[in-house]
């Protein structure tokens, strides 16, 4: 059994009946992309993130975001030593391989922004000094879109750092019954086995970088992103960072499917989770109840696939 099959199995024991969600999370790992898991409370967002961390032998930190959380609580700070008058840097939770940012939208924009440099460049600047983060580094953030009291919407710059946005959804009735009995004696998280370590993850990510992309498919990705910039319902479309993210994620999906080359289906299947959350709807569309995902699907239908 391959490492990816083992990872699917371990995550599948925790999140029942959601193979597509599990594959999206694995694709995020393969493409070195940060993930935003957004859905209603109680469907397994935090559980899925913790399960992924348990399959990984690297350093895992969980940070509960709250309104009083400060940037130094994320990045760390220099501690004064009165014995010799020196300062010693004490790293914060962000210095790890997998960071679970639970309910990220409950922290202030100032604290949220503390993650921007870490997510973009794999480093953190604290008090004028730059510190490299461990490699690999992955942020898995969760948020509940239906709770607004005491929350701060993620700014566009923050959303743009997430390679994928994942929705889990309610389980089918038969799987919800299985959940009841799976947790009758102990939680499935207790039996999750570690199947990855830092070197394996880096090897997988290097393998993804070797996946071939035909220039016609590269142009297809650019055409999809360009179409978001002139759509009637969109005030601000996707940036070149989004095109790069789609390129990486499409290669990761191809590798997940056992191919050494990207096909149009890799791009079409990942366009919504990669691009939709980066769109900013105009006022009319927002108040009309238009969903970003639906706009992205309409663009997919309109932009021609290369042959």
Keywords:
single chain; 307 residues; alpha/beta; Rossmann fold; Helicase, Ruva Protein, domain 3; five-stranded parallel sheet; 16% strand; globular
Commentary on this structure:
By secondary structure, the protein is an alpha/beta fold. The chain folds into two domains: 194 residues, P-loop containing nucleotide triphosphate hydrolases (Rossmann fold); 98 residues, Orthogonal Bundle (Helicase, Ruva Protein, domain 3), CATH 1.10.8. 43% of the residues lie in helices and 16% in strands. The protein contains 14 helices and eleven strands. The chain has a five-stranded parallel sheet with strand order 2-5-8-1-9. It has a two-stranded antiparallel sheet with strand order 3-4. It has a two-stranded antiparallel sheet with strand order 6-7. A hairpin with a 2-residue loop joins strand 6 and strand 7. Helix 12 runs antiparallel to helix 14. The longest helix has 17 residues.
Supply the CATH architecture of the largest domain: 3-Layer(aba) Sandwich
Structural class of the secondary elements? alpha/beta
Q: In which order are the strands of the major sheet placed?
A: 2-5-8-1-9
Q: Strand-and-helix sequence, N→C?
A: HHEHEHEEEHHEEEHEHHHEHHEHH
User: What's the number of domains?
Assistant: 2
CATH homology group of the largest domain = P-loop containing nucleotide triphosphate hydrolases
C-alpha termini separation:
35 Å
Shape: globular
The radius of gyration computed from the alpha-carbon positions, rounded to a whole number of angstroms, is: 20 Å
Total strand segments? 11
Helix content: 40-55%
Under CATH, the topology of the largest domain can be stated as: Rossmann fold
Mean pLDDT: 90
Largest sheet features: 5 strands, parallel
Highest-level CATH class of the largest domain:
Alpha Beta
Share of residues in strands: 15-25%
How many H/I helical runs?
A: 14
In the predicted model, the low-confidence regions spanning at least 5 consecutive residues are none
């Amino acid at each position: 059994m391959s490492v990816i099959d083992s990872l699917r199995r371990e995550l599948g024991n925790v999140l029942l009946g959601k193979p597509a969600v599990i594959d999206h999370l694995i694709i995020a790992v393969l493409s070195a992309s940060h993930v935003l898991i957004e859905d209603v409370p109680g469907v397994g967002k935090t559980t899925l993130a913790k399960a992924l961390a348990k399959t990984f032998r690297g350093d895992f930190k969980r940070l509960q975001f709250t309104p009083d959380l400060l940037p130094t609580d994320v990045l760390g700070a220099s501690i004064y030593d009165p014995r010799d008058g020196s300062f010693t840097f004490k790293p914060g939770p962000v210095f790890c391989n997998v960071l679970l940012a639970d309910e990220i939208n409950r922290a202030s924009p100032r604290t949220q922004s503390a993650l921007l440099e870490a997510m973009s460049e794999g480093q953190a600047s604290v008090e004028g000094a730059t510190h490299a983060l461990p490699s690999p580094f992955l942020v898995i953030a969760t948020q509940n879109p239906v709770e607004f009291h005491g929350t701060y919407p993620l700014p566009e710059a923050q959303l743009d750092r997430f390679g994928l946005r994942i929705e889990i959804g309610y389980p089918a009735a038969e799987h919800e019954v299985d959940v009841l009995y799976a947790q009758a004696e102990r939680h499935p998280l207790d039996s999750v086995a570690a199947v990855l370590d830092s070197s394996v993850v880096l090897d997988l990510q290097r393998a993804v970088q070797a996946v071939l992309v035909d220039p016609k498919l590269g142009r297809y990705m650019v055409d999809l992103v360009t179409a978001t910039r002139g759509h009637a319902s969109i005030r601000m479309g996707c940036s070149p960072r989004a095109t790069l993210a789609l390129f990486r994620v499409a290669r990761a999906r191809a590798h997940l499917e056992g191919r050494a080359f990207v096909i149009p289906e890799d791009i079409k299947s990942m366009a919504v989770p990669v691009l939709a959350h980066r769109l900013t709807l105009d006022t009319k569309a927002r108040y009309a109840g238009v969903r970003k995902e639906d706009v992205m699907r309409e663009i997919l239908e309109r932009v021609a696939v290369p042959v």
